[in-house]
Amino acid sequence: VVCLVAYHIFFMLFIWSYWKTIFTLPMNPSKEFHLSYSDKESLEREPRGESQQEVLRRAAKDLPIYTRTMSGAIRYCDRCHLVKPDRCHHCSVCDKCILKMDHHCPWVNNCVGFSNYKFFLLFLAYSLLYCLFIAATDLQYFIKFWTNGLPDTQAKFHIMFLFFAAAMFSVSLSSLFGYHCWLVSKNKSTLEVFRAPIFRHRTDKNGFSLGFSKNLRQVFGDEKKYWLLPVFSSLGDGCSFPTCLVNQDPEQASTPGGLNSTSKNENHLFPAKPLRDSQSHLLTDTPSWSETTAKAEKGKVGMSNPALTMENET
User: Would you state the torsion angle of the CA atoms of residues 52, 40, 26, 91, taken in this order, to the nearest 10 degrees?
Assistant: First the structure.
């Protein structure tokens, strides 16, 4: 009876999470990231290069973005006509920008991103538990099959096929689930593993990592009672994310000046202001920039916001 109840629980959770992974529409950037009609016209009139970047800098001056392209330019999608939020990427299959895109999964025929990443993880977890349960309960009959302890009927071939299918899926799912558990512990996406996020002054593969416990809450939320259920509980809005470069993390040692130890040896220091206090904009002017950066930016005209100044390519 216990095995039968466990079987039905795993099966129901598996179907529920699989359904949510497939039919949860990926979230797209909000309207504030889309260019206005006048900005689109200005961008089309300007030749490619610094003049276009100036248009994008004006459009992105109040947006909560920290990442840049490899050349230090504002990340812009010319197909969706929007300034890309941090960790947002354009999916060539769906032909739209997906918030915190991880990958496009052909097995669920959907993009895995901010809106359904938790469902995808639970789908892998419950699929793995389901296959392990089937393999474990079928093992005794599989042993009898090899010792000729079963009646000579066609049913014994069904038992052999069921055991091998469950065992093979268990191996493949365990590797995939383990990989995504590692991604969650580091607060990374699959795309960020292959190409580390580029921030204003440097590339940092662990720029979004806040420590194991906080990384876990970013995906599963603060309410532990919802962690194992396929209901949306991830933190944030998918457009802006806390980073170890700009957050004062109480779990990390800080310098006397109030700056994180991760950036104390850098020439360009990041402000210690929390990322999303009271849902305020992230890229407002702040006096916490270092004197070196302030002197370097002082003589530039038309760039009142230092966080949006495009760096020269080396």
Answer: -50
Within a domain: 174: yes
Q: What is the pLDDT of residues 60-115, one digit of tens each?
A: 888 999 999 988 899 999 899 999 999 999 999 999 999 999 999 998 999 999 99
Domain that includes residue 146, residue range: 1-26+114-194+207-246
List the catalytic residues: 105
* CA proximity to 115, closest of 238, 221, 30: 238
- What residue type is assigned to position 214 of the chain? K
Q: pTM score, two decimals?
A: 0.75
Q: Give the sign of the dihedral formed by CA 170, CA 173, CA 179, CA 182.
A: negative
| Count of domains for the chain | 1
The mean per-residue pLDDT over the stretch 178-200 comes to 94
Q: Of 122, 96, 128, whose CA–CA distance to 26 is shortest?
A: 96
- Is residue 65 in a domain? no
Residue 43 lies in a domain: no
Q: Would you state the pLDDT for residue 158?
A: 81
What residues have CB less than 8 Å from 12, skipping those under 6 apart?
none
Residue 235, in any domain of the structure:
yes
Closest to 197 in 3D by CA, of 292, 87, 307:
87
Q: Per-residue DSSP letters for 251-301?
A: TS-B-TTS-BGGGTTSSSPPP-S-TTGGG--SS---TTS-HHHHHHHHT-S
